[in-house]
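Dear support,

Our group has been running a series of protein-ligand predictions, and this particular one with iron/sulfur cluster is the one our PI (initials K.S.) wants archived with full inputs and outputs. We had some confusion internally about which version of the output was final, so please treat the block below as the authoritative record. The input we submitted was:
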Amino acid sequence: MARTEAQRTPIESGCPDGFQYMHPVMRKNYGDWAYHEDPRPGVLVHTAHGGDKIYTVRAGTQRILDVFTLRKLCAIGDEFADGYIRFTIRSNIEYMVSDGSKVEPLIEALEAEGFIVGGTKNSVAMISHTQGWLHCDIPATDASGVVKSMMDELIDEFKNWNMPNRVHITTSCCQINCGGQGDIAINIQHTKPPKINHDLVANICERPSVVARCPVAAIRPALVDGKPSLEVDEKKCICCGACYPPCTPMQINDPEHSKLAIWVGGNHSNARSKPTFQKLVAAGIPNNPPRWPEATAIVKKILNTYKEDARDWERMNDWIERIGWPRFFELTGLPFTKYHVDNWRGARRSLNASTHIRF
Ligand code: SF4
Ligand code: SF4
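Confirmed final output from the archive:
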């Protein structure tokens, strides 16, 4: 894309123009990179057609950063890098330097402060996670906490290139909104219909929008004790939690009945293959803060099996496609139950099974 020197006028929403924060070598060679190499875990070298090189050093962060940690990370960037940083969507911080001799001192400075360098090529990348209790109004777990406790156990997989190919893990702290597609996804799974506080519905909820939110038409307007409220047909309800954001008196989060579920094999389309959709492999896992040991044990089991059995450069979905789902359950030792069979009769009509946008 051609770019003029004049920067666009800021608009009242959206992020600022990223070019002003870019390393000058990256700005100069924008769109003109010839190839990249991976000299060691956590480091990328991009070479431009004209011969310029830029080194990127990647370190994991806990995403929700306090101001002191941010200042520390920036101070390292000023002293050991060229003063340019950026964050990736997986909450890694990246430092760019144009002089290769700065890479090792930069890594030493980061590791001396307790930051972990890695997450490139065939490693387990930093888990991408949703907001959790800190920012969002509907979470049933703290996705950030799940990420922290899992990455503590997967630290060696982040620092090394041990996996057959890269592994992207995602978390989601409710069942319906952000989070999502990954080689392994850890998502909330509600198992009971919402409990309605009829005293509050009339004051808080716009009833027609709540009725419209339900994907299976399980909600009806109702009069309860003479007050306008809502009722749920529990036989139809699929416990998705979509009614909870527009109507908080339809409480679905529950310490016991909101569980975790693990899905595997999601991948975007690429030059060689179509997108693949992730499939449920473990359900009903306790939502057990602060360390979520049960979910972590299952993720480690899946990763170890993939590491041992997949061929070089097979992504998790390619590996499962080659060996087949029965063999996946056999190798991982995960039980296959009737709950894994997606027999919901409305699924065919209402679930997106293509990349076409429908309204
Ligand atoms: S996954 Fe759900 S609860 Fe978590 S931040 Fe996104 S919308 Fe909020
Ligand atoms: S949880 Fe989902 S399926 Fe159940 S009533 Fe609410 S919106 Fe409908």
